Known about the structure:
Blueprint: E1 2-3, E2 9-10, E3 15-20, H1 29-32, E4 36-42, H2 50-58, E5 69-74, H3 80-99, H4 112-130
Antiparallel strand pairs: 1-2, 3-4, 4-5
Amino acid sequence: xxxISTNVSIPDDEIELSAIRAQGAGGxxxxxxxxxxxxxxxxxxxxxxxxxxxxLLAYKDSRITSDGVVVIKAQQFRxxxxxxxxxxxxxxxxxxxxxxxxxxxxxTKATKASKxxxxxxxxxxxxxxxxxxxxxx
Length: 137
């Protein structure tokens, strides 16, 4: 059972884990051992609360397919157990990130002093450029 929060958890039978061969360097061992983990989690068919499902399906992440299936490939470690733990951790982080509510940004206004400084510097710059003109005799 994967514990997401104090009152939300995912049963193990809803998470599909399969061992596959890892890519990249690893010598002769990489061709023999299936140490990478391919995790699949179907969001609409899961027992997550409706709020979690809606947030996950609306979340913009390349790991979530258009069908609402989360696909995570874990192959960072050399052992299957560590990759399995890594995949489950990444699934948990994805779910918590999707359900986190962003704080509304309150736009700030420029102060009167900063506006004055900006206009003064523009005026000064204009005077400097005006002195660069042709000298009239």
